Amino acid sequence: MQRPPAPLFHAIDLSGTKFFVVCETGAPNMENLLKVIYELYTDFVLKNPFYEMEMPIRCELFDLNLSQVIQKDRVALLGR
């Protein structure tokens, strides 16, 4: 049984940081989800004085808030 490839959405900020979302075929509002992820990135990662560009994102507040957004707004963001 073959499965069609999953859609891949991406965004690139001015610094070159790339964000990717892999979802089910037909999932709506992925552009909105990428915007929310970018807002969380700017709020919790870029404003973190210990974060260094080009390093993996290791920010507990970013992870926590991203998980909350996905769980809380799943219906609004993912259309389910």
Question: Quick one: biggest sheet?
Answer: 2 strands, antiparallel
List how many beta strands DSSP finds: 2
Strand content: 5-15%
Helix-strand topology string: EEHHH
Quickly count the domains: 1
Overall body shape: globular
Helical amount: 40-55%
Average pLDDT? 82
The first-level CATH class name:
Alpha Beta
Poorly predicted parts: none
Distance between the termini: 26 Å
Return Rg in Å: 14 Å
Structural write-up:
The structure is a single chain. This protein is α+β, with helices and mostly antiparallel strands. It has a single domain (8-78), classed as Beta-Lactamase (2-Layer Sandwich), CATH 3.30.450. The protein has three helices and two strands; from the N terminus they run E-E-H-H-H. It has helices at residues 30-45, 60-72, 74-78, and strands at 8-12, 18-22. A two-stranded antiparallel sheet has the order 1-2. A hairpin with a 5-residue loop joins strand 1 (8-12) and strand 2. It is globular.
